[in-house]
Amino acid sequence: MNKKRQNIFLQRREKRKSGRSRSAGTWVLSVLLAALLCIGALSGCQKTEKEDTFKVVTSFYPLYIMLMNLTDGVDGVEIANMAEPQTGCLHDYQLRPKDLVRLEGADLFVANGGGMEEFLSDVLSTYPSLMVVYALDGLHEEDLLPGEEHAHGEEDFHEETEAADSLGALPSGVANPHTWLNPELYKEELQYISSILEEQDPENGEDYRENCDAYIRKIDELTAEYDDLKELPSKKGCVLLHESFAYLADAYGFPVMETVDVEKDSGFSAREIRQLIDLVREAGDAMIISDSQYSGRISRLLAEETGLVTYQMDSGVSGEYEKDAWLDAMRGNLETLRTASGMTSGSAVASENRVKDPEKPADSETGSREE
Ligand SMILES: [Zn+2]
User: Is residue 4 part of a domain?
Assistant: First the structure.
């Protein structure tokens, strides 16, 4: 019964997806782009100046932040981000001509993969020789969590991922593509992208490697501060309103009771809202995790109706172009997990477990963004 209800919300999204007319939009886009590129070609010789530059374009914000760290201080490399920094996840993203223009002259396009960039075929039909690297290809099949299509059981999920030539090329819905929210997987992706940069721009290979190591050290320092979350004797279940946090919950061993991918949707009928409320009630004493990239309207409603507490987390998909953006978002999320687990900031699971820095104030600013 539970599962049947959940299907309503998932199917709803499918319908929206398939109902969208892509072909007409793509055609208009191609014509516009052809015109823009012609103007570029006519305006002449700017390009030769840039020929020595190794240009890397990322599809969206979390990858741009990754590249900011990898290319920091490296000469002769230029990075650009295709989607605006406030775009958020790229599910259902409609390409615009100016997105495609940003890819002009790119030597490498860094995409997430796993269906996050459904528009990729449009990009490749405009730039057929563009080299694309998927962050997901830095992972192993067993690292991936099932996506929407397999939300009700993993039966053929592993068959599908094992059979895939490339994890990055998996279509939308098979695997959950929000892998950057597991710090260990994020590091694997980072090392993989770094190895591609080294290969494609060997002159700067050592610099990329050093940057990669330095960033990994920062990530390790951060996660080491929160190891006590892993040792919690009992962990609250989570109701996820966007599948992104499944990776974070998995990394820290918090059980996921329900995933209802509803936040990006608006305009639910009263009946659908009632069903959603019942579904969340059935999860029992859980925490609702809402994604700050969305309005929070549904999470507020669910909290009011069920009496459960909603915690807003940051999936690191939008913000300022700052090198430490991922680290800051992750720190906020880990603090939120601590708060939700009844631990105070900077204190251990149970104070008898370990001795903590006595100089740290017990109830300092937690950084959590509980609604
Ligand atoms: Zn997403």
Answer: no
Ligand 1 center from residue 325 Cα (angstroms): 17
Sequence-ordered list of residues with C-beta below 8 angstroms from that of 164, at least 6 positions apart, any chain: 141, 170
Which of 112, 131, 123, 114 lies closest to 65, judged by CA? 112
CA distances for 341 relative to 229, 238, 293, angstroms:
9, 11, 23
Domain that holds residue 91: 50-224
Angle of helix 205-224 relative to helix 183-200, nearest 10 degrees, comes to: 170
Q: How far away, in angstroms, is 203 Cα from ligand 1 center? A: 36
Ligand 1 centroid from CA 36, angstroms? 31
Which domain-ending residue is among 176, 199, 224? Answer: 224
CB contact at 8 A, 57 and 106: yes
CA of 176 to the centre of ligand 1 (A): 9
Would you say 348 and 342 are in contact if contact means Cβ atoms under 8 Å apart? no
Residue 206 and residue 302 in one domain:
no
Extract the tokens encoding 78: 């230029």
DSSP 108: E
Domain match, 154 and 294 both: no
Q: Which two tokens stand for residue 68?
A: 């900011």
Please, which residues have CB less than 5 A from ligand 1, an ion?
Answer: 89, 244
Q: 287 C-alpha to center of ligand 1: Å?
A: 19
Rounded distance from Cα 263 to ligand 1 centre (Å): 10
Distance 279 CA to ligand 1 centre (A): 21
Q: What are the strands, taking DSSP E only, across 306-347?
A: 310-313
pLDDT tens series, the chain, 371 aa? 344 444 444 444 444 444 344 455 556 666 666 665 555 444 443 434 456 899 999 999 999 999 999 999 999 999 999 999 999 999 889 999 999 999 999 999 999 999 999 999 999 999 999 999 999 999 999 999 998 877 666 667 888 888 888 999 999 989 999 999 999 999 999 999 999 999 999 999 999 999 999 999 999 999 999 999 999 988 999 999 999 999 999 999 999 988 887 766 666 788 888 888 888 888 788 999 999 888 888 888 888 999 999 999 999 999 999 999 999 999 999 999 999 999 876 544 433 333 333 333 333 333 333 33
